[in-house]
Design brief:
single chain; about 60 residues; two-stranded parallel sheet; two-stranded antiparallel ribbon; 4 strands
């Protein structure tokens, strides 16, 4: 059973996350011929203050 773990900065809407789950599921199912029912997608949202980009937090960068 394929499992994909997506780490991303917090702040996306529920609709955006649902779209991401749908599209990742479709891509995995198609690319490795896996039954869609077997695909798992886990989203871990990281607070902007805990997400570093080029040595600075996402929060300080205004992301």
């Amino acid at each position: 059973m394929p499992t994909v773990h997506v780490y991303m900065m917090a702040g996306r809407t529920q609709d955006q996350k649902e779209t991401l789950i749908r599209k990742v599921t479709d891509a995995i199912a198609e690319s490795i011929d896996a039954p869609e029912a077997n695909v798992r997608v886990i989203i871990s949202e990281i607070p902007k203050s805990d997400y570093g980009i080029a040595g600075t937090t996402g929060e300080k960068l205004g992301r």
